[in-house]
Structures are given as C-alpha cells and as structure tokens.
C-alpha cells in the first residue's frame, strides 16, 4: 500500500449487456470508473450491481459490449497482469477450512509471485501493512473460520489491500461490520483514493454512508444506470423515489454539511393482516 501509481488505471464499460444463461441483467451500461476516486454503486436489491462488478472484473463475460482496462479489451489481457492491477472482493466470499488470517491475507500476494521470482520482503511488508490497516493483526494466526462475521470481513478486506492493485472493486464490504468499523473502512477507502491515487468502485446499501463518502454516486435500477455524478447532483429526493421507490427528504447535516436522507413517515403503508392481528390482539 505504500506504492503510489504513476497514472491511475482507466476502467470502462461500453454498451455492456450481461447476465446469466438466458437471463439478461445488464442492459446497455456505459460507465467510466472515475480515476483516483471513490465511486459508490447504489441500487435496490436485484438491480444488477454485483453483476456489473463481476462483468467489470471479467469474472463474467458480457454478451455484448466490452470492458476496457487502459483502453484495451480486458478479455484480451493476460490474467496475471489484470490481477496485478485489479482486485475484486465479491459478496460473501468463503475461505478454505483451517486457513489462518495471515495465510488468507497472503493470498492477496499471489498475482505478484512467480515460482522463480518472489520478493519475500515486499510480500511480508504488504501483508503486515494490510493487516494493520484492516485491524486484524491481533488474530493473524487464528483460523478465518473461527472468527466472527465482522472479523472475517475485515480479513478479506486485508487480503484485497495486500494485493496492492490500483483498481479495487468491493461488493458490499461493510456487511456484518459495526457502524464504527464501517466508518473506519470508508475513511480508509477515501484515503486510498485521495492519498494513494487508487480507483475504487464499491457497492453499498447504506444510502447515507454512500452520500457521505462517495466522490461519485452511480444509481442503478433494473440493469441500467439511471444517475451518475457527485452526490450533490445525484442524491436527491426525486432520484431516491425514482430508483428506490423511497419517500425521503434529503437534508444537510448541520454539523458536517454532508447530505443525509431521512425517510418520510407517511403512515400510508398498509399493515399486513397477521401483524395487525398481533398488534391489536
Ligand atoms: N448466478 C446467477 N444466476 C442467475 N441469475 C442470477 C445470478 N446472480 C444473480 N442473478 C439475478 O440477476 C439479477 C441481478 O442480481 P445482482 O446480484 O447483480 O443484483 P444486486 O443489485 O447486486 O442485488 P443485491 O443488492 O440484492 O445484492 C437478479 O435478478 C438475480 O436474481
């Protein structure tokens, strides 16, 4: 994490269509991931956020359009070279049984290692720094599967940090984390972007954390990008209603001046019969 890339990588999706077997999910996505910035992908469940991340990371092949890394089709590039530049943390990753935290974090170094050439010093430094950043050093020698959900999530984050890629794609990295740890993680991601020039694309579900920390917000709905730009222009009541069907006011925090959405309590949502029976019974 100590290296600062000379020129941030450029990741683009052009007219992307992608999905699973006969099911099309993404439909005509054009996206340039802003270089050296933290971009947050928002959208309701099933809107295609993970599918987009997988397609950009070439885990999923698009049925039409293309993904380019620095102007070159990512599918034509060497796998190791892509792994040295782009790291992805998918949703709900699982580690082999018995693997220790240090071993898991060390897996982040695989793209940098070759049988005949391995920089053990460089690897050890990257692993140490990544574990310190993600605050997992204290349980470095414990099995990943014996940790709590939040501790495990931090180990995966350490692994992706140890990979030291210029581009980092994270799918819901804050799942299972306490609010304080979520905030710490987002501040770390902001620092990676602003101080180290890393390019980050992160799926989040917490609208207020997204608005508070993102440089760029991308809102998806039904496999398409509906809005993209700085929170100031994207995070509006009208867009929240259109994309999430959420009635909310967007206000400014009086202390930080950050944008916040406050759901409206309209009282119009019908109470299902069974709950109403319990409530009044
Ligand atoms: N492996 C799969 N095979 C078939 N359909 C899938 C697969 N993975 C996802 N889908 C479908 O693709 C659509 C988009 O899913 P995706 O996981 O990309 O959405 P998402 O926006 O990330 O959702 P969430 O916020 O719930 O994680 C959904 O309808 C989902 O059911």
TrEMBL record:
One Gene Ontology molecular-function label: ATP hydrolysis activity
One Gene Ontology cellular component annotation held by this UniProt entry: plasma membrane
Keywords: ATP-binding, Cell membrane, Ion transport, Iron, Iron transport, Membrane, Nucleotide-binding, Transport
Tree of life domain: Bacteria
Domain ABC transporter: 11-247
Membrane-spanning residues: none
Membrane association type: Peripheral membrane protein
SMART domains: AAA (SM00382)
A GO BP entry: iron ion transport
Subcellular location: Cell membrane
Family annotation (InterPro entries): AAA+_ATPase (IPR003593), ABC_transporter-like_ATP-bd (IPR003439), P-loop_NTPase (IPR027417), Siderophore_ABC-ATPase (IPR051535)
The keyword Zinc is annotated on this UniProt entry: no
Family recorded in the similarity comment: Belongs to the ABC transporter superfamily.
Entry-linked PANTHER family: IRON(3+)-HYDROXAMATE IMPORT ATP-BINDING PROTEIN FHUC
Protein name per its UniProtKB record: Iron complex transport system ATP-binding protein
Protein source organism: Modicisalibacter muralis
């Amino acid at each position: 994490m100590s290296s600062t890339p000379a020129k941030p990588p450029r990741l683009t999706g052009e007219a992307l269509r992608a999905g699973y077997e006969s099911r099309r999910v993404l439909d005509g996505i054009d996206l340039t991931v802003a270089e050296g910035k933290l971009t947050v992908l928002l959208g309701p469940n099933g809107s295609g956020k993970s599918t987009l991340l997988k397609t950009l990371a070439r885990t999923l092949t698009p049925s039409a359009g293309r993904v380019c890394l620095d102007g070159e089709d990512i599918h034509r590039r060497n796998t190791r070279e892509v792994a040295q530049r782009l790291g992805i943390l998918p949703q709900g990753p699982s580690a082999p049984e018995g693997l220790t935290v240090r071993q898991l974090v060390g897996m982040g170094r695989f793209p940098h290692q070759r049988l005949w050439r391995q920089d053990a010093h460089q690897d050890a430094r990257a692993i140490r720094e990544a574990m310190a950043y993600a605050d997992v050093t204290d349980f470095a020698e414990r099995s990943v599967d014996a940790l709590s959900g939040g501790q495990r999530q931090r180990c995966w984050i350490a692994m992706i940090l140890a990979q030291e890629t210029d581009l980092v794609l994270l799918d819901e990295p804050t799942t299972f984390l306490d609010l304080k740890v979520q905030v710490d993680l987002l501040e770390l991601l902001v620092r990676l972007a602003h101080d180290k020039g890393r390019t980050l694309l992160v799926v989040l579900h917490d609208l207020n954390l997204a608005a508070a920390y993102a440089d760029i917000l991308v809102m998806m709905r039904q496999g398409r990008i509906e809005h993209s730009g700085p929170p100031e222009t994207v995070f509006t009541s009208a867009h929240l209603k259109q994309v999430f069907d959420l009635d909310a006011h967007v206000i400014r925090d009086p202390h930080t001046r950050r944008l916040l959405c406050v759901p409206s309590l309209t009282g119009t949502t019908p109470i299902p019969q069974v709950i109403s029976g319990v409530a009044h019974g």
